[in-house]
Design goal:
There is one protein chain. By secondary structure, this protein is mainly beta. It folds into two domains: 121 residues, Methylamine Dehydrogenase, Chain H, CATH 2.130.10.10; 82 residues, no CATH class. The chain has three helices and 19 strands. It has a four-stranded antiparallel sheet with strand order 1-2-3-4, with no helix packed on it. It is elongated, with a radius of gyration of 26 Å. One of its GO terms (biological process) is cytoskeleton organization. Pfam families: WD40 (PF00400). InterPro entries: Bromo_WD_repeat (IPR052060), WD40/YVTN_repeat-like_dom_sf (IPR015943), WD40_repeat_CS (IPR019775), WD40_repeat_dom_sf (IPR036322), WD40_rpt (IPR001680). This is BRWD1 protein. Keywords: Repeat, WD repeat.
């Protein structure tokens, strides 16, 4: 097999270069002379993550598809710490990305199973406040393409980046309490009634009917004990879009010259 470089990284002071090779070795080079200094052995699959420590020039982190995360002392060519990302009942999880915190005391990794792994010094009590399972309710919603080949959300017919901020749910799609919903960017200052998701039954493209978060309850509906209506929500949305278009048309008309001379200003 012809060796190929899969990743490359300089250390903090640029004195060393570390390369990951597809034969699962990490090689440490002198960046000035090009001399090979160390072969770092430990990975059992290809490595696509090399992350240097923010201020300690000796430290380099590596992680790969074999689920291994290593902390290396590249000046000595030795292994300092090792973690294997084993998931109970599912085997190991490939590690896709890692980053150090600015103070160098913590680093975080993401794996192929959607887990966020946080490593560091001290206790983990601050993180115990967060639920174990946190997903956006839109994570696995089907997408379609319109006549212009643009991607749309199948349920709302909107471009995904124009949709409202999603709700946080567990792995079964059950919404988390409102105090967690405020962690979503765009929902930090929402009133409590806007943080209560509305659940409904939606048919998927395979014909299976599943329960999904489809909107948010209003205070009036909650007080009256009424069943939230999907149709009412769609009508309100269409009316809002029509009002916005009408307002834009009136604004452009008011900006046009009254005597017909000149060029109309842009709205």
């Amino acid at each position: 097999m012809k060796p190929k470089v899969t990743m490359i990284a300089w250390n903090q002071n640029d004195n060393y270069v570390v390369t990951a090779v597809n034969n699962h070795l990490l090689k440490v080079w002198n960046s000035c002379t090009g001399q090979l200094l160390h072969d770092l052995v430990g990975h059992a699959d290809e490595v696509f993550v090399l992350e240097t420590h923010p201020f300690d020039s000796r430290i380099m982190l590596s992680a790969g598809h074999d689920g291994n995360i290593f902390i290396w002392d590249i000046t000595k060519g030795t292994k300092t710490k090792h973690y294997f990302n084993m998931i109970e009942g599912q085997g190991h999880g490939a590690v896709f990305d890692c980053k150090f915190s600015p103070d160098g005391q913590h680093f975080a990794c993401t794996d192929s199973h959607g887990h966020l792994l946080i490593f560091g010094l001290g206790c983990s009590r601050p993180y115990e406040k967060i639920p174990d399972q946190m997903f956006f309710h839109t994570d696995y919603r089907p997408l379609i393409r319109d006549s212009n080949n643009y991607v749309l959300d199948e349920q709302t017919q909107q471009a995904p980046h124009l949709m409202p901020p999603p709700f946080l749910v567990d792995v079964d799609g059950n919404p988390h309490p409102t105090r967690y919903q405020r962690l979503v960017p765009g929902r930090e200052n929402c009133a409590d009634e806007h943080l209560i998701p509305q659940l409904g039954y939606v048919a998927t493209s395979d014909g299976e009917v599943v329960e999904q978060v489809i909107g948010q309850q209003t205070v009036d509906q909650d007080e009256q004990g009424m069943e939230p209506s999907i149709l009412d929500g769609m009508i309100r949305q269409l009316q809002l879009e029509q009002d916005q278009r009408t307002g834009a048309d009136q604004e452009s008309a008011s900006n046009a010259p009254q005597n017909g001379e000149g060029t109309p200003r842009r709205g």
